Amino acid sequence: MANAYEVMRIRLDTELSQTIAAIEQAKRSVGTVELDQSSVGRVSRIDAFQQQELAKVLQERLNVRKRKLEAALNRVELGAYGLCCACQCDVDPARLDADPAAVFCSVCVVGQTNP
Ligand SMILES: [Zn+2]
C-alpha cells in the first residue's frame, strides 16, 4: 500500500506543480489584457474584456483544482488517501486513476455538487 500511496503522491505533486504554473500563467494573461486596454479600439476592448473574464473563470477553476490536489496530498500524509470522504469506504481505484484527487466513491459522488 505504501508504494501505491507513493505513486499517487507523485501524480498529485506533479499535477499540483502544473496547476500552480497554469495559475501563474492565467494571472499574467489577466494583467496583459489590462495593460492593452488603453491602446485598443472598442471591439478589441470587448474582446479583451471577454478574454479577461475567461482568464478569471479559468483561474478560479485552477484554484479549486489546486485546493483539491492539496487536500488529496494531505490525505496521503494522514494515511486516509483513497477513502471516501462521505462513507469512508475505499474509493474505486479506477476512479482514483482517472482523478487522483477524487474525494468520493462512485456511490457518494451522486448528489455531490463538486465531485
Ligand atoms: Zn462513499
Characterization of the model:
The protein is mostly helical and 115 residues long. It has two domains: 2-80; 82-115, no CATH class. The protein has three helices and no strands. The protein has helices at residues 2-36, 42-78, 93-98. Helix 1 packs antiparallel against helix 2 (42-78). The chain is elongated, with a radius of gyration of 19 Å. The model has no long low-confidence stretch (mean pLDDT 86).
Can I get a quick summary?
68% of the residues lie in helices and 0% in strands. It is an all-alpha fold and 115 residues long. Helix 1 runs antiparallel to helix 2.
Largest sheet: none
Q: Number of DSSP helices?
A: 3
Shape: elongated
Broad structural category:
mainly alpha
Helix content: 55-70%
Query: How large is the share of residues in beta strands?
Result: under 5%
Uncertain segments: none
How many domains?
A: 2
N- to C-terminal distance: 24 Å
What molecules are bound to this protein? zinc ion
Care to count the β-strands?
Answer: 0
List the secondary-structure elements in sequence, H or E: HHH
* Cα radius of gyration in angstroms: 19 Å
